[in-house]
């Protein structure tokens, strides 16, 4: 019994403590809303701010009321919010009402017909909500707007904002609603899906509230190259990338490569050796080209004109991209669209727009390729394979060695094994020499000599603006591309301008000029391919370029007598030979487009487009008289007349070569377009009839 009594006693004490703590919390909560003020000549806003800090109530009032109050003198202690506000507004022209956690401050109203101002603060509200055609809107939401004010501590200003809405009613089938006991100082918010929100001050009879259709979201428009049609009216398969993401991609200046991952079904092969098979949308076409291969490239259309290539288009000048994929594209562009169509629209200026100057720049840095992942044998593996495959019985040394011009020599590991097979060295010497080669790796030299970090920089300066009848967009761009290969340079300069003219309400015209100048230069390329064995170093310990004559056209045994006879060096040194020649190219691409639109009748217009694309590229190359290939070619056509060399090619000076390529494309298109939309927006008709002629030179 004693233990049971003890447990009951402890339980009663614990219950008492909990009840006591609960009363303390209630008292604390009540006390937290008590106000203590002792202000002399304080501003009205400062007093309200201190009340807000102590009570948590927000205040709504016109800022002009603060000026009317003047300095405030108030001294209260442990007062409620209601007592504080009554004391504050004693002998003033202001009054207040409390709704939820908000205190609305306003001027006192003059009593009407002997009634006090408090008796006219609440009212019943009625109204009817309809659409723009007068049809009732069932289910429209009627909400009482809750407003609050906040103070900017830096400026001391109060701002009035909408903090929330209390749903008060929903319209019936006739669009009508009724509310009771609503403050005359409140506002009502009327909202309905697909319509703009309408806010109105409370009145007894609001009458008919007519809602306006909400401003449409920017409609998704598909550009087919001939016309723009809305997404829902496009019967074919198409894709439109996120232009914001595309513009911010700073890894390439090629607009198509920026589409990688943004267009479903678009496959981009970024391999540097894949040639023209780079973009794939709909698979391989079965139509072969004049070059003899199956074309997988889509058709490119820029500003309504088909162009052979879009690599010269500056991505910062692109406004919109549409990718057409299925038979609908072929029905528009014919067999050329069998691999899909990529339609690009460039930017233009805006009418009545002040001059806007934009500068955009980016730099992309990529480190050297990780050649440790090259799928090749290392030196030890290669030497082991060479030992296992060497067979001096089936292949003798004599027929392989032929001093005649055109036969190469043996690699160092093969030469060592042939020397042993011919009895020139012992087995121990052979093994020592081969083991020495197996310990050498040229990967670090390949990484340092043949590769460098790739740096891509782009700068674009654009200007846009216009008047009521004229608009212009112009951009200047520079692209510097430092490739992986040392000594290579690639600089591109661009000028793009578009001018739009509005002659009158029925005639418009535009002109686009896009000019690209690309200049490249390079030394004689040396690619670290499988010709260079994994143990073959390119430079010795002192930094001298090493001879690799066995890779040339002459075996080592034949070099000395030929050099003695001709007086020309026939030693093949890859690194030194790379500096004996240069290649340069200068390309100019011009894309000119002009268009005219004439309104003939309501909904009927005539459109004409003229496009001209011209691309020229002039390439030059020079090899001096120390170039290895130059000397070999010279000796190929030389004659040995009893020890006297007769050259049939010029043997003084270097070799200079030049080539020039020019492409021209003309496009002329005339079309009539008729657009009709019924007044009730239920019917729409679009008709296009046109003629297009193209010529390629």
From TrEMBL:
Gene3D superfamilies listed in its UniProt record: Carboxypeptidase-like, regulatory domain, TonB-dependent receptor, plug domain
Transmembrane found in the keyword field: yes
Family matches, as InterPro entries: CarboxyPept-like_regulatory, Plug_dom, Plug_dom_sf, TonB-dep_OMP_SusC/RagA_CS, TonB-dep_rcpt-like
Protein name: TonB-dependent receptor plug domain protein
TonB-dependent receptor plug domain boundaries: 247-341
Taxonomy, superkingdom: Bacteria
Protein topology in the membrane: Multi-pass membrane protein
Subcellular location: Cell outer membrane
Alphabetic keyword roster: Cell outer membrane, Membrane, Receptor, Transmembrane, Transmembrane beta strand, Transport
Pfam family, one: Plug
Gene Ontology cellular component list: cell outer membrane
Family that this chain belongs to: Belongs to the TonB-dependent receptor family.
Transmembrane segments: none
Organism: Sphingobacterium spiritivorum ATCC 33300
